[in-house]
Amino acid sequence: MVRFLLDGTPIVLDDVDPTATVLDLLRYRLRRTGTKEGCAEGDCGACTVLVGELHAGTVRWRAVNACILFVPMLHGKALLTVESLAADGKLHPVQQALVDRHGSQCGFCTPGFVMSLYARSIGASGTMGRNVADVIAGNLCRCTGYGPILAAGEALDVAPREDATLAAALADLQDEATPAGRFADPLSGSERTWAAPRTADEFAALLIERPHARIVAGATDIGLWVTKQHRIIADTIFIGDIGDLAGIEEDADGVRLGAAVRYADAWEPLGRVHPDLRELVRRIGGTQVRNAGTIGGNIANGSPIGDMPPALIALGSILTLRRGSERRSLPLEEYFLAYGRQDLRPGEFVESLFVPRPKPGTRIAVTKISKRFDSDISAVCGAFAIHIEESVVTAARIAFGGMAGTPQRARACEATLSGQTWSEEAVVAAVEAMARDFSPLTDVRGSSDYRAKVAGNLLKRLWLAQTESAEPLSVLAAGLADG
After folding, report:
1. In the chain, which stretches have pLDDT less than 50?
2. What is the CATH topology of the domain spanning 2-166?
3. What is the 3-state secondary structure (H, E, C) of 190-208?
């Protein structure tokens, strides 16, 4: 059974398909057809809705993609759609601003833009201090009407919602919550199950019993298994409501992030570790994706083109895994064994990640290369942490995504740099050594030669940007131009 509030009204659903999407629920069962399907993969934002969760006695809102949000993930929460805004025959100020500035062309994408701009207007998650362009980066307009849409967003004031009554209703709803269910699949006749443990201890015990269950936090990856690959997931464990997996601890040594911390919440703490991490997080999907995707999910799925692992590896991050009451910690790079294989035992899960602060004298650079600046997958993501004392490289950690079957360190490149004077000659030799580290594949995002050239040029660019000598700039600039 799933219980949630739609515009403050309780909705109770029995016998829910664990991987039914909120988009389909809205359009086909609740007849809220303002929410559109544009891509069914969390890329275009036409299906944007707002989900509200009780947080320290108040309702915290976040914009998410309904097309890859599973219905049980609404359990104990509040939901707003584009139909929630207009009242008494009058458009909401966000809608009126779009009308006044001619921000709607064909209109198909408009409900999603309305909801993203509304999220910004109430200071929802991932929007505070962000400009309009960043907030709507996860919304696509195929009519290219961005100018009027940006103007509409910039004309709006920001003021939190008054949600005291809703907060009380959510508190009552959570007291009644039953975070587990079963669904009899009418096509196969098989039974599918889902569970939503509320503590890490409950989750650890449950995963020992059901080691083959699929763990879902934000569903930004698994959601596409369902909508694009039509895969049937027999057993699902949802961990997005586990508070003790969503903690963030900062001290002088670094920041520890629970596996269920969403990227929208990790943005600023990671940015305080280094500004390049802030910029990298800004380019992980759009606002809706960052409001759903988690630190642990991005690591656990082991994608060779995941944006964060190269940067986390370069900084020397330590991963903590848990099985039952047992824990073990390992350097993040050791977790990735081969394409599709991670060092994860049956019943074990990613619990937390520690990201150390760079030591003084360490040169840091993180760069994502993709065809489209916003909401695109990396062709190459390079991360560099090079420690220099008296012009000598005393340590180097260099990692790449998109260059191998896993996020991987460039160990030959590192060894070539270490102990050398931080100079053009050392950099050129280190770039040449990368050929021993990687044999990149060729795909739609780039050829093997292109990836190899880009990876080397990123190291050259770091040297160019941080060297104190202007003399060799023209020499290496030619190399950069070649890439």
Report:
1. 469-483
2. Ubiquitin-like (UB roll) (3.10.20)
3. CEEEEECCCCHHHHHHHHH
Q: What is the pLDDT of residue 405?
A: 93
Q: What is the rounded distance in angstroms from the CA atom of residue 83 to the CA atom of residue 17?
A: 25
Q: What CA–CA distance (Å, rounded) separates 413 from 433?
A: 5
pLDDT, tens digit, for every residue of 112-133? Answer: 999 999 999 999 999 998 999 9
| 110 and 103 Cβ atoms separated by less than 8 Å | yes
Q: CATH assignment of 180-242, given 3.40.50.1370, 3.30.70.260, 3.30.43.10, 3.40.640.10?
A: 3.30.43.10
Cα of first residue to Cα of last residue in the chain, in angstroms, is: 55
Residues 447 and 453: their CA atoms lie apart, in Å, by 10
Give pairs for 191-195: CB < 8 Å, separation 24+: 192/17, 192/18, 192/19, 192/232, 192/233, 192/234, 192/235, 192/236, 193/18, 193/234, 193/235, 193/236, 194/18, 194/72, 194/235, 194/236, 194/237, 194/238, 195/236, 195/237, 195/238
Q: DSSP class of residue 25?
A: I
3-class secondary-structure state, position 1? coil
Q: Tell me how far the alpha carbon of residue 90 is from its chain's centroid.
A: 36
Q: Which residues contact 169 (CB under 8 A, 6 or more apart)?
A: 5, 8, 10, 78
Q: Name the 3-class secondary structure at 394.
A: strand
**Residue 173 pLDDT:** 86
Q: Residue 480: its pLDDT value, please?
A: 37
Fold of 360-483: Enolase-like; domain 1 (3.30.390)
* pLDDT, position 161: 93
Tell me the C-alpha distance between 233 and 213, whole Å.
8
